[in-house]
Amino acid sequence: MIRARRIADQFVAAALLQVASGLVPRGQREEWRAEWKGEIWQVIHASSADWQGTVFTCGAFKDAYLLRTDGRKPRAFHALAHGSALRCLALIFVVGLVGFLTCIASPSARMALAPSSSDTTRTVLISGDRGYRGIEVPSVRIADYRRWRTETRHLYSAMAFYQPSVESVTAGKHSLKHVKVAVASQSMLSFLNLTPALKVALEQNQSTHPLLLVTSNLYQALFHGKSDAITRSIQVGGQRVTITSVVTGEAWPLPSSITAWLIEPPNVLNRISAASRGFVVARVNPGGSAASLGSCWYMFVPQPEGGLSRFTCIAISGILHAPIWVLWEMLCLALAALPATTPLDLGDYPHHPNRHFALSTIPRWIFFAFKIALIVPSVCFWSIALAYYANPLGSLAAVYIQMVVAFLGFLFAFRWAWRDQRRRCPVCLQLLSNPAHVGRASHSFLDWSGTEWICSKGHGFLHIPEIPTSWLSIQCWLHMNPSWHSLFSDTCIE
Ligand SMILES: [Zn+2]
């Protein structure tokens, strides 16, 4: 029985050894295999335990691998080693990717990144004389809306009124407080991003009861996903209403976050006090005089009590893409401020007769361009994510947060990119190491005093003057003499 096990163990070990020998260079394979066969025979016959030979042979794979790579770490590991150019780019890419995913997770940030449709370009939000503050604060009286529906047909093909409020919503025994509900006119249905079939069905509804649309998130919070909840009625601010439809969060294309819409029939909306204020959205008539006025313009309306009132009309696309404009402005501002924080000169790199060194200028600039190209979207994504993760589009607080984050992000990221580029070897793009101070401070004018950095692969030295002088005002690279190369085991110099 023991003999049979040993034969089986020997057979399995021989098979594993045959596979492992495939990793060994061809010239050394036979000798390596013979050595291992001898070792395995010894292990199998010296031990009384079962399958010792098989376990021992597993070590042959590591031995064969080390023999093949000559003890070196794999090339991929070298490329991502500490201080390497690829690792630097990979880290910036990961930071940008996390920022992008954070944007995707936030409805407001996602809307800011989405391309604008022709519908959002033609749709305007009309606010009182508050400019962009009118995006957040209800500023149009419903009396004005009632008059505009008939008096401004030459300007607008459709118009809707909505009045957001914070209500408590109750479904059975379950109650939610601070739910953002918008009481809206029936014409609001044409402005919501609903499926065509649902939009037609709702617009043809002749019921004298209000229609209630809730987002899927609110629906989940109220009913915990029960499918029969669609037939239930809930209390919204003390009024009992039946849920008409559950829609996605993207159904609301306008600024501010709304989780439920109460579409009131005209007779109910007419009972609202004339002085009550809300928001008015309108779709610009393509053939009207307002079609060519751009993304922000003013509308002067005669008032019944005399005089003219000024209203600001802001295109929804302008509000949705305000974060992109903020980014452009902050990018320009950061680039203008950059020379005040760090010198833009990347240093003096003398020409080298070796063609290998001469060609190294191209990857150096490619690396720098990639670094900047990755930094810009990373800062963009993070500034939008931080500003709009908890704030709706159109929020002034979010705009201020984004301005600060984007400006400081661009400025310090560019500053870091320039400083990082100056601290790299121009040949292998590895971060330089082992800084050493050379010379005394008194030598600055008649000799040289500063810090010397060295490439760990033996490509050269970087001299950074302590005090810039007329003959050495910026850092200077010094190629290493070939006689030094034997000191660097990892050198790639040819
Ligand atoms: Zn180097």
Automatic annotation (TrEMBL):
It comes from the Bacteria. This is Uncharacterized protein. Keywords: Membrane, Transmembrane, Transmembrane helix. The lineage of its organism: Bacteria, Pseudomonadati, Acidobacteriota, Terriglobia, Terriglobales. The chain crosses the membrane at residues 84-105, 365-390, 396-414. It comes from Acidobacterium capsulatum (strain ATCC 51196 / DSM 11244 / BCRC 80197 / JCM 7670 / NBRC 15755 / NCIMB 13165 / 161).
